[in-house]
Amino acid sequence: MFEDCSVKLVLLCVIISRVIDDLVKMFFRTLAAVVLICCAAGQTVEGASTASKVISKLKCQSWSIGIYTGDSPFDLKPAPGIKNPVITPSSITGVKASFAADPFMILFDSTWYMFFELKNKKTNQGDIALAVSSDGFKWKFQGIVLDEVFHLSFPHVFEWDGQFYMVPESRQTKSVRLYKALEFPKRWTYVCEIVPGDFVDPCIFYHSGRWWLFVGANPHYNNELRLFYADNLTGPWVEHPKSPIIKNDPMRARPAGRIVFYDGRLYRLAQSAKPIYGSAVRVFEITSLTTTEYREVEIPSSPVLKGSGKGWNARGMHTLDAHEIAPGKWIACVDGRP
Description:
Elements: H1 2-40, H2 45-58, E1 64-72, E2 75-78, E3 97-108, E4 111-120, E5 125-133, E6 140-146, E7 153-160, E8 163-169, E9 175-183, E10 187-196, E11 200-207, E12 210-217, E13 224-230, E14 238-239, E15 260-262, E16 265-272, E17 280-289, E18 294-298, E19 305-306, E20 320-326, E21 329-336
Antiparallel strand pairs: 1-2, 1-21, 3-4, 4-5, 5-6, 7-8, 8-9, 9-10, 11-12, 12-13, 13-14, 15-16, 16-17, 17-18, 17-19, 20-21
């Protein structure tokens, strides 16, 4: 009887301790906010600066973008000689941004072009933004290049037959849409709907004489992956007979970036949505891909990206776009949140 009471007392103490900890954190968040408001009303500049720093430390931080390098697309580390992240909401000019995420980049005429989701504070929706770099390490923000009346993200940009295309996420339209560059990289026009449906993070690629498209389905749970194919980029697109190829698995269903072609093999990138959304990037080798079959197996080194436990990517990483710049040398844009 006494042992049972002791156990219950210990558990109660733990619960009370956690509640007090949460209340203390909430108190200091509120205190810092009050100080900042007072200072903004005309008190002291020094006080406002201090309060602002306190708030930035305490509040939940947002996604930003970094650059990694390595000797393979699955053995990447923060690029030496630069300070990550290279693109943050505070480094974006001309528009107030909540976060920067979902980066995709492409090399053209010795210049790197990075397209990414910019969460616009004014409209509270995602727009597609652009940054450029001459070396892949130092980036300059160029502005928003694709702005619709609906949310856009995950700007999967690619080149085909001398033209540049983009397949961003556009789930608010209940469809996957194809865009084409009128004047690369800043002018884009809508081409057509690829497939209808409430899909996220579309990954499109050409392989063995056909176009293939992975899309995340059931986005409220991030636990389903569907597959389509077509003979032509503009369709008609057909759903694979094995689709959905993943069901009820938030650890590997939602796409996390461009399909990787490496050493003659295909690899699919997937987000791990546990313990929280966007925790890590896992890699699966596609061992069989035909119009009737699909099989994949996770590589031994997966996950290849995950939260570092501190700094700008402490709590998670969920997008990877890797490019080979020389034999055995890779560069990648990634995202993370503190």
